Task: structure prediction
Amino acid sequence: MVILGVLSTLFSISASLSLRYAIMHFPHVMSFYTPFGLIGISIILSLIAGLLQLLLLFSWNRAIKNNIENTKLLFQFIQGKISESKRESIILFLHKISQLEIATWAFWIYALFYTVALISGIGLKVLLNILAFIFLAIYLQSLFSVSFELSRLKSTAYSYFLGKPALITEIKGRNVIIVAILSIITFTIYWLYLLIKITYEISSFIEEDQRVRQGVLEAIKGP
Result:
């Protein structure tokens, strides 16, 4: 997943640089047939970058949803192994985890509008891109909120089961409006940074969660 994030960022940067170079050096010819086909190259790189970003955004969703399902199975297993006095707490944790849900539907609508916009005329393209952005914002805010709450709940639950602090890597909560503003101000540089940053946070969270989860299972099973 980290490799996918890096590749997506690199292709986005390459597309931007090639387009800027073409416009600066050949402003009178804005077509595929500029010298060395720079406009065409930038378009191809942009398409590849867009596809990689779609895959990356979906991989975030899949990673978090799989972790939620694995957590439910873990808590259900623990529920049958702990004393009656602690069972109420595990039921509460399980209930809170079960309420976490990412708005995957918003991602698919975003992907549809984004894809159709690629092959549409200028007028329709603008409208579709605006609609795509709206649903992307809904999806991302849902993902940010669920990821943050998931990491917080699991740190609390693991600490409770182990009887000592068991903090795992926190996936930071983010506000999609602030993300959008910073991305616009920095000409998408902040967005490209986030692609790698969030990918790293999710990967680190899952890796550390697997390690701590094993410790919890060993503690529950006993010697």
